[in-house]
Amino acid sequence: MTETGIKTYEVRVSGFPPALYSARSPAKARARCWRDYLSYDDAANFRDFLKRSTIRRVPDPPGVGERVMIAGLPATTVHNYAAGHYVWFMRDDSDAVLCSHPADVTRADKPEPGEAT
Fold it and tell me: What CA–CA distance (Å, rounded) separates 110 from 106?
């Protein structure tokens, strides 16, 4: 478990391949999957989605849960939700998943250029 409690969950929805979600709880991962599912069936209700889906904790993929600094603020990396070179992360005080260009990301334990060590 990371300091911020972000874990990786596999959510399976009947008729779809399993998908990985990073979240602070299984309920938050499942809710995020439901919001994605709405792009397929915008008339779906959450109760029916719960009947069609299952969730389980899986090991974090490499890179998930790493502490980083983004624009000078601490964050934790999460599962890469889309192809590309961006770094996906969550701030410590938010459940929103955001992305940043790698040039704006440094490891939390690495001093910034010009900082005394």
Answer: 7
